[in-house]
Structures
1.
Amino acid sequence: MFETWLFLLFGAVLLVSGVLVITARNPVHGVLFLVLAFFTAAGIWLLLRAEFLAIALVVVYVGAVMVLFLFVVMMLDINLERVREGFWRNLPLALIVGGIMVFEMTAVLLNRIYGTRPLATPVPADYSNTKELGRVLYTQYAFAFEIAAVLLLVAIIAAIALTLRRRKDSRSQDPSAQVKVRREDRVQLISMPPETEK
């Protein structure tokens, strides 16, 4: 009973934060509400005993992607008036896409509730969600996992190659040139006559 109320609480917070993400006037506030939505979704994953997915959601999205979004949004000088002008122009398409998503989620939930399949299959006491996910990922979907890893590696290398620019004003050290330097090249002894008091 407590888990049900906790799930309803997390679900309400997730819905409210999701609505505030798209209705917030300040982009920074929208990003912060999105961080709250990710944390709440991780809590729901924990209630469903999917610990690995919950931790991955927090580490990957909140710890990396959303922090990057937050810094980008804070560093960019976004013209809020131009952003608000496009809201009403894009509203019909957004309503169509949102309606399709709501229909799909409702169909999946109704199939789960009123379908012939049981809602949940019993699992043994020593069942580990992380172990089962790793077993399926590295056996049944090993080839697809390797292809995805290679594609991500190629994307990272391409992003670095596209953004790498050699700056002309940057200073760097050359250790091989420093080792070859002799004392005579850097230090010059000058013989000066002694000064006498007048």
2.
Amino acid sequence: MSTNGNGSANSYAAVDPDVRLMLEVREDNAAAFEQLVVRYQDRLINVLEHLVHSREWAEDLTQEVFLRVFRARKTYEPGAKFSTWLFTIANNVASNSVRNRSRRKEVAVSSTGSSDSSALPLSELAIAKSALMPARRLDKLEMAEVVSMAMESLGERQRMALLLCKFENMSYQDIADTMDLSVKAVKSLLSRARVNLKTILEPYMDAGVRPSGSGADEE
């Protein structure tokens, strides 16, 4: 992202310590770059894992994101919070990777259904964000697996917006900047994502019918 002048750049640097770190990276400060990696690596992996459904793939994409950050250091100008700029890169990297992999495979490999503790927060998302009250009791691992399948059923843009909102606590404006959308479009995406998630999960909550994993319509 670009700025409208030094005043804007200075304002972001004044309030965002990560912007200041990135400006040091621009001056080839390796320690500053290492600090940014430490601060954001796990956060990126967690968000990307829920987008691509593979921890190993998410780790590879995270390395690619940081590589792009480093390569772009000399032209970096703070036109947004650092996290917004970083997740914009991550969104582009993930979207391109998913599209490229889809082209190489006629049929997408379905999820193995395995789950680990990193997926557990999505169980809270299903209840808190979709206002679901389970008709039957589920253990956390089962719930995490089902919600992960339900998230996979959402369209790519709905899923990304929901993850940025849930895991990064981004404002509507920051999500809009990250995804190159208007604030109105982000609000609409999140609303449809929550409705879709509730619709997808209700049959399982009521009767144990698992989500199919097919992408939801985002239009």
3.
Amino acid sequence: MTPAARVQSAIELLDSIIEAARAKGAPADRILAEWFRGNRFAGSKDRRAIRELVYGAIRACGPVPASGRAAMLRLAEGDPALEALFDGSPYGPAALRAGEPAAEAGIAPEWLESALAASGIAGPEAAALLDRAPLDLRVNTLKASRETIELPAEAQPIEARGGLRLAQATAVEQWDAYRDGVIEVQDGGSQLACEAVAARAGETVIDLCAGAGGKTLALAAAMNNAGTLVAADTDRGRLSRLAPRTARAGALVAETVLLNPGRELEALARWRGQADAVLVDAPCSGSGTWRRNPEARWRLTSPDLDKLVNIQARLLEIAADLVRPGGRLIYVVCSLLDAEGPAQVTAFLASHPGWRSDPPRLPVGIPRGTGLRLTPFHDGTDGFFIARLEKA
């Protein structure tokens, strides 16, 4: 493919991504994967270049662009070589028109950028949300240790106890260590959120929003496969992916529980008041993960955020019912919006006098309300809010 043809392909992909963002359709990575499968003429260098153009344009725009072309023109501003490819050549983009507008720059749609600023995320802190994320691994201590593991590429230790950082785009899925469950791909901040649970051998621990089980596997390793670990979620598809992952990692999960939305406590009745620890990795806006999913900020609306806040509050109520006296509840969101973090915990404590805050003791992070905040700019991790609550 010529450079201009790559640009035109990226523009067409951006049109699909913008349409999907407005309609809450497929995410960008899936749209790209399907396009690559259907266009075999694009070689590996073409695919790499197109991917870079697409994600570069997404990061360059704040509000949802009017079109893929407008988004690409935003990326081309300040890049004369890219702008020169808008020349009307065969298979390339049409020539630039006089005064043709580019998409608007920024961090996010205006309402969301304002909400972040009100939550203390502005300037360099906000800009870092659109950087490219590193590749972090967690060494599975059921099978190895960070100190002795040997990997095909150089890796640097990070603050998480079993964490390692590799160069971006390292193909770890091809390594024996990955296929054998010796390592798992997991952001350093996510690993630290699991450390905040302080799960121990012999305890009863419930991962209330387990999803596909990334944090569940980390909890099993922390418990050394001794105790009762329960993984629960309302998403059957995601939960079904846990079994092969636990088998590969050699992790023991006592029970996997599919929850019926609105009737969660019926399925969890036997653990009411019995859990030493409950992890609530709640559904959220994902504003702390924009480095990996930058188009996600185009999908979120203010009503969406209100619904998420209500879901989070309900999950805290469910978790509180499961914790035994003297037990703990760890609340985590990969969001940097105060409405989903400090405000949630403040409201919970105000309505539950039998609970107190016990902020997590982690090697990184900045106190925010009654919890701890991790950010890409300050800590080099995805953005997280982590709170630890104890029941009298």
4.
Amino acid sequence: MTRRRWIADETSGNRAALVGEHARHLAQVLRAHIGQEFEISVEGHVRSARIAAVSPERVEFELGEAVSTFRDFPITVAISVFKFDRMEWAIEKCTELGVERIVPLIAARTEARLASAAGKRVDRWRRIAHQASEQSRRVLLPVIDDPV
């Protein structure tokens, strides 16, 4: 059975932690408990991990041995900014396919209101990429540039 994979928010030696929204989801929604095992992506490597402490705002892991993984290809995708619901879908799918970098472009035919609002949506796009990375068991997050 495959273990769920998380991307660590903090690391220190043989310990890693999830904080904020990730910790809240793991602790309250998934009802994590001490001793439960997961895989944690730490600094570009995946390691097995066992929960050492759980609170609603922080889940700490004790890291174990390295897990072999498939590395992503160094692919960059430039996407012209278009309707935001479809843009979010495209970012999610590019992330799941293993794209390393996503560059949102303001093209000549991009609607003016979408172009002006694109800068405000970058944080949301990064959150979507983070969630898609964990769901697709990626080792590293893709880089999402500011609109160009």
